Amino acid sequence: MARQPPSSTVPRGRPRDPRTRAAILAAARALLERGGLTAVTIEAIAQKAGVSRPTIYRYWPNAPAVAMAAFLDVTGAPDAARSTRSPYAALRAQFHAVADAFAAPAGRSVAAMVAAAQSETELAKAFRNEFIARNRDATRLLLERCIEDGLIAPPADMELVLDLVFGPLFYRLLMGHAPITRGFVDRLLDTVIPASA
Amino acid sequence: MARQPPSSTVPRGRPRDPRTRAAILAAARALLERGGLTAVTIEAIAQKAGVSRPTIYRYWPNAPAVAMAAFLDVTGAPDAARSTRSPYAALRAQFHAVADAFAAPAGRSVAAMVAAAQSETELAKAFRNEFIARNRDATRLLLERCIEDGLIAPPADMELVLDLVFGPLFYRLLMGHAPITRGFVDRLLDTVIPASA
Amino acid sequence: MARQPPSSTVPRGRPRDPRTRAAILAAARALLERGGLTAVTIEAIAQKAGVSRPTIYRYWPNAPAVAMAAFLDVTGAPDAARSTRSPYAALRAQFHAVADAFAAPAGRSVAAMVAAAQSETELAKAFRNEFIARNRDATRLLLERCIEDGLIAPPADMELVLDLVFGPLFYRLLMGHAPITRGFVDRLLDTVIPASA
Amino acid sequence: MARQPPSSTVPRGRPRDPRTRAAILAAARALLERGGLTAVTIEAIAQKAGVSRPTIYRYWPNAPAVAMAAFLDVTGAPDAARSTRSPYAALRAQFHAVADAFAAPAGRSVAAMVAAAQSETELAKAFRNEFIARNRDATRLLLERCIEDGLIAPPADMELVLDLVFGPLFYRLLMGHAPITRGFVDRLLDTVIPASA
DNA sequence: CGGTAAACGAGACGGTACGTCGTGTCTTTGA
DNA sequence: TCAAAGACACGACGTACCGTCTCGTTTACCG
C-alpha cells in the first residue's frame, strides 16, 4: 500500500507560486461575473491577473476550464446542518439561499457554467459532480432527516423529488420567463414537499 | 410632384432570393446538430450553404442569431389538439414526444440554444417567446381541457404546475445527471398531475 | 459627308439626365481633393452625389476612371495666347500659374492622378493626352513664338527642353523634397530657357 | 527588490525569426514587380511567404508599408566612387545605370512607390530619405569632385542642378510620354552639366 | 396616345481584402 | 523546473467596396 514516489513527487526546479493560481482564479471570476462566459478569455485573464498566457495553460487546458475552476472555487456546498433548527426549517432556509443566489448577479455565473458544460464532457462532469451533486446531496440529507423526524411523508422516488425542487429553479434561472423569489420557492416546496399533518 | 416617402411596405430594390435564406438556415441547422453551438460559425455556414459571408450578415447580426433562427425554424409548436384522444392521453403523448426529442441528438440543439440565450438578450427573448412560451401554451391548453373534463383536479397555481413539469425535463437535459426516458416522464406526470379519482 | 445613322446614333429610350453626370464628377472631385485617390470609391461617390452605384458604372468602368474624368474636367489647358504680352512674359506667367496650382491643395490631385495612371493603361493614356500633352503643347507654342521673335536661342532638342522645365516641377510635386515656389520657377526658367542677349 | 524597468535594449521573450522578415519582403518584392502596387495585398504576401497575416501586421502597419520596405530593401544607394574612372565618367555611368533600371520592369516598382508615397506621410518620408536623398547625395558627391577637378563649371544652385537631372528622368518614367534611353540621358547631361572646355 | 426602350434608384449577392482578436504552441531569457 | 515575454500559425470575426444582377419606376421617343 505504500505508494512509491519514484521521482515525480519530489519537487524539482522552481516551485509554483501559490499566488499565481489565486490571481488567475480571481481574475477569471471577476470576468465571469460581469461579461459572462464569453468575457472569460485567456487573454483577458492574463492581462487582469498580471500573468503570462502560457502560465495559465500550465494550470488549465482552456478558458472554460479556468472559468469552471473559478466558479467552483467560490461556490462551496451549502452547509446543510445548522443544528439548532428543525430539518424542515433548514430545508426552507437552504432553498431561500439558493433563490437569493440565483436572483443575484452570481446567478448569471451559474447559467454561464451550465452553458459551458454543454460543450465539453470534462467540464460537464466537473460541474455535475462539484456543483449539482453537492446541492442534491445536501438536500437529500435534510430530506432524510425530515423523514426520520416524521416531518414529511417518505416519497416514492427520492431522486424525482430532488428533480422536482431543483428543476424549476434552474428552469427559471435559464429561461428567465419568471423571477426566482422566496415566494416562488415557498410555493414550490409546499407543493413538492408538503409538511405532513 | 409630391414625392411619396415610400411607406416601408413597398419592397424596393432587388428582392431577396428565398433560397438564400433557406440554404443558410439548413447549413446552420446541420452544423448545430453535430458540433453544437461552437461549430456554428459564419465561416462554416457560408461554406456549407454556398453563400458569401456578407450575405449572412445581411440577414442576421451574428452566428448565435443564425443558430437560433435555424433552431426555431424547424422546431414547430407541438400540435396540441389530436382530437380523438382524451386530453389527458394527449398530454402524456405530448410529453413523451418532448422526452424523445430531448433524448435524441436534437436535444443537443435545445441545450445549445439555452446556452446561447444566456449571452444576448435578443436571443433570450426569441427563445423564450418562440420555444418556451409555445410549449407552455400547448401544455396549458391541454391542462385546461383536462380540468374542464374533470380528469384532473384544478391546481392552485397553473404556472407553477408548468414549471414543475418542464423544469425537471430541462434540468436533466442540461445537467445530464440522469437520462430522460418515457418512464421518467410518466413518473413525473403521475406526481405533478395525477389523474383525479 | 452625310453620315448615315443606321440606328445606333439615334438615341432611344430615356435620355441621360445631364445633372447625373455633373453630380458624379462634382462628388468625385470633392473626394479627390481631400482624401486623395483612395477616398474616391464608387460607394462614396454614389452617396455624395445622390446617385445609385450602377448608374456610375453606366458612365465609367471603375473608380479611378471617374477620378480621372473629374480631374480632367476641371483642369483645362492653359490658355497660351494672352495676346498683349510678349511670348516670354506669357511663358513665365504660365509657369507661375502651374507653380501656384501645384502648391495649392489641387496639386494633391495631380499627384494622385499620376499615381492612378500607373496602374491602368487607359488612364495613363488619358492623363498623358489630356493633361501632359496639353501642357507641353501650350508651352511649345509659346517657345516657338519666342524663337520667332528672337527672344530666345533656338534649342537643339525642343522635347528635351520641355522635359527640362516640366520634369523638375513634377519631381518636386511628387517627391516633396522641396517646395514649388515662384522663385524656384524663375531660377528654373532662367537656367533652361535664358533670354537671349 | 526594486524591479528594474527593462531598459528596452534587453530583448525579452522569444526573438523574431529573421527568416520571417526575409520571406515577407521577398514575397512583397515579387508581387510588386509583376502586378504593381495593387497586387501587394497582405493576403497575397501571407500566402506567398508562408506566413500568417497577423505576423505581417506585427512588422508593418499595412500593405503599402511592406511594399515600401521591400522596395527599399533591394534598392541600395548607387556606389558613387568607382575610383579608377574620372568623376565625370562615373557620373555618366551612374545615370546610365539609373536609366537602365528605370527602363527595366524594376522601373515599374519605382513608379509604384512614388504613387504609394502620395497617400501616407510616413511612406513619403521613408521614400524621400531612403531613395531620393540617397540618389541625390551620390550624384552631388560626384558633381563636387568634378568641380574640384575642374571638369565642370561650378553651378550657381547645386540643388537646382540635381532637380534638372533627376526631374526629367522621373517625369518620363511616370508619364511614359517618351522612353528613357541612354541617348536621352546623354543629351540630358550634356545640356545640364556640360563638360567645361 | 400608347408602346417601347433606356435611365435611374434601390438593394441583393458573390467576392476579395481588410485589420483585429483570441487561440494554443513554441522559444527564448531569467529566477 | 517555473515563469515572463513575445513570436508564430491558425481560424474566425465583422466591415468595406467591389462589380454584377434583378427589380420597380420614370421619362422620353416614335409609330
Brief write-up:
4 copies of one chain form a homotetramer. By secondary structure, chain A is mainly α.
Question: Could you characterize the architecture of this molecule?
Answer:
The structure is a homotetramer of 197-residue chains. By secondary structure, chain A is an all-alpha fold. Chain A folds into two domains: 18-73, Homeodomain-like (Arc Repressor Mutant, subunit A, Orthogonal Bundle), CATH 1.10.10; 77-192, Tetracycline Repressor, domain 2. The first copy, chain A, has helices at residues 18-33, 36-39, 42-49, 53-59, 63-74, 87-103, 106-119, 121-148, 158-175, 182-192.
| Number of distinct beta strands of chain A | 0
Mean pLDDT over the residues of chain A: 87
Order of helices and strands of chain A: HHHHHHHHHH
Q: Quote the distance from N terminus to C terminus of chain A.
A: 54 Å
- CATH topology term of the largest domain in chain A: Tetracycline Repressor, domain 2
Oligomer: homotetramer
**Beta content of chain A:** under 5%
Instruction: Give the uncertain stretches of chain A in residue-range form.
Output: 1-9
Radius of gyration of chain A: 20 Å
Backbone shape of chain A: elongated
Q: Give the proportion of residues in helices of chain A.
A: 55-70%
The CATH C-level class name of the largest domain in chain A: Mainly Alpha
Characterize the largest beta sheet of chain A: strand count, sense, and whether it forms a barrel: none
The tally of helices of chain A reads 10
